[in-house]
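Section 3.1: Structural characterization of target chains.
Under the original work plan, the team committed to producing a structural model for every single-chain target entering the pipeline before any wet-lab resources were allocated. The record below documents one such target. The sequence was received from the expression subgroup and is listed exactly as submitted; it comprises 417 residues.
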Amino acid sequence: MFKSEKEAAVLKTVYGEENVEKQQKRYEHLLEGFEKNFGEGQVDFFTSPGRTEILGNHTDHNHGKVLTGSIAMDTIAAARKNGTSVVHVISEGYAPITIDLEHLDSKCKCKGTLSLLIGMFEAALKKGYKVEGFDAYIITDVIGAAGVSSSASFEMLICAIFDYFSNENKIGYVEYAKIGQYAEHEYWLKQSGLLDQMACAVGGVISIDFKEDMPKVEKLDFGYDQLGYDLIIVNTGKGHADLSAEYSAVPVEMKNAAKVFGKEVLADVEEQEFMANINKVRKEAGDRAVMRALHFFGEQKRVDKAVKAIKEKDYPTFLECITKSGNSSWKWLQNCFATKDEREQAVPVALALTELFIEEKGRGYCRVHGGGFAGVIAAVLPHDLTPEYVETMTPYMGKENIYVMQIRQTGAVHMDF
């Protein structure tokens, strides 16, 4: 299987011609795992990418603007309907999960993937969508707990599966994202926004304005290849899976700042009014809430500026926005290390080493990536500097933690083999 012209064409569309052979072997391995656990027969295949955050760090949860894109790492599944009300999910390397859709355990909170699945199925059913029993075998190459949204990639994969099997692919990507967000809010007790899920679901580079209940999504014709640059993700070796309190404090403090003006989120607060009342915000919400709100307002403007630059092919301006956003995240948002152990600063170390490299070469850009506090950084470098940068960072971070990648145009979909 996966050797026919049609299958090769599908893989080429999603992964690029240079990766077809690698992906053929990967999907063959996936099928073997499925058949070993669930038996032979008709099988459907699904894919959902990880994501890179370009601009709009920690703004989605306050209904702000973001610029984001899917990456060439994905979570893939072999699955089929089983004719029952029971879902069986096996993620390679983890214990099997079984869930009876007719008896969802609403009290199962903070128990990893099990809780996440229960929350997603509950959300889908509450919204009036169908979820029927299926068997799924899943593998992934999305880095876990490291800021490229392995959880959102998984969530959108599951949405793609029950959308295809039970809803005729009519649910829509915004609903996918809201289903994943509901599960994280209610079953992981994590106050996430919609950025991660939307980026994984839609694919390619997109700008999103979350101010309205139905987010405004615009797909942009852009990839780092167009600039002659590579996106390089550096995993600093410490995930943020155990940092939910630090992560959740960001939206909470931003919302506390908004409450000073009688608003729920900062997107509903006018920047000019905020600036005129900073002392009041300091008194009622605290200094860090002020700093994080200032970051929010700055990111709003940077996203608009970057989107305009992309459309006008003004790439120097776009790239400058990356550096400015990273500096704002570091200094104002303050999400480059966790205050619970200020001695552990893997992200700042990786940023410092990268900035020294960029300063020496006179070219390149970098920033903290994703939720922050730990996890990964992103470097954007000209193609010719990438090998030297990888060589420079390898002694500090390990070559296995440095990933050279590009934007992927395909989101969470059924693979039409």
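The radius of gyration is 21 Å.
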